[in-house]
């Protein structure tokens, strides 16, 4: 266990800066430091929940807000990935539930590891 404070909790509390896109009652939508596509955003709950399995109710709220956020912008994209990971083996790097909203364009060159794309 790390003694380092949770970066997303620090952002929610206003102690760390973030590029906040929009705020909902239970979540915030922020811009990632290293976006993988134009419009990439991260939806985080205001409550500290370590991952998507830790609290199904909070996970449902986060996923719902991610879908609302994406749906309001879908006309700009050809598609979208809504991605969350649970655990280090699944590439989770921040131990605070979050959903990536990754806008996609046909032939954008972004390859997801399980799709077999070249």
From TrEMBL:
<dbReference type="InterPro" id="IPR036265">
    <property type="entry name" value="HIT-like_sf"/>
</dbReference>
<feature type="domain" description="HIT">
    <location>
        <begin position="7"/>
        <end position="111"/>
    </location>
</feature>
<dbReference type="GO" id="GO:0009150">
    <property type="term" value="P:purine ribonucleotide metabolic process"/>
</dbReference>
<feature type="short sequence motif" description="Histidine triad motif">
    <location>
        <begin position="96"/>
        <end position="100"/>
    </location>
</feature>
<protein>
    <submittedName>
        <fullName>HIT family protein</fullName>
    </submittedName>
</protein>
<feature type="active site" description="Tele-AMP-histidine intermediate">
    <location>
        <position position="98"/>
    </location>
</feature>
<dbReference type="Pfam" id="PF01230">
    <property type="entry name" value="HIT"/>
</dbReference>
<dbReference type="InterPro" id="IPR011146">
    <property type="entry name" value="HIT-like"/>
</dbReference>
<dbReference type="GO" id="GO:0047627">
    <property type="term" value="F:adenylylsulfatase activity"/>
</dbReference>
<dbReference type="GO" id="GO:0006790">
    <property type="term" value="P:sulfur compound metabolic process"/>
</dbReference>
<dbReference type="InterPro" id="IPR001310">
    <property type="entry name" value="Histidine_triad_HIT"/>
</dbReference>
């Amino acid at each position: 266990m790390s003694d380092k404070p949770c970066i997303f909790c620090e952002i929610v509390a206003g102690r760390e800066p973030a590029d906040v896109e929009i705020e909902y009652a239970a979540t915030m939508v922020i811009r990632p430091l290293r976006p993988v596509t134009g419009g990439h955003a991260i939806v985080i709950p205001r409550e500290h929940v370590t991952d998507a399995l830790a609290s199904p109710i909070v996970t449902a709220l986060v996923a719902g807000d991610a879908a609302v956020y994406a749906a309001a912008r879908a006309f700009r994209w050809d598609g979208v990935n809504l991605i969350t990971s649970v655990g280090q083996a699944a590439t989770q790097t921040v131990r605070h539930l979050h959903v990536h909203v990754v806008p996609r364009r046909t032939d954008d060159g972004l390859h997801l590891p399980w799709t077999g794309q070249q």
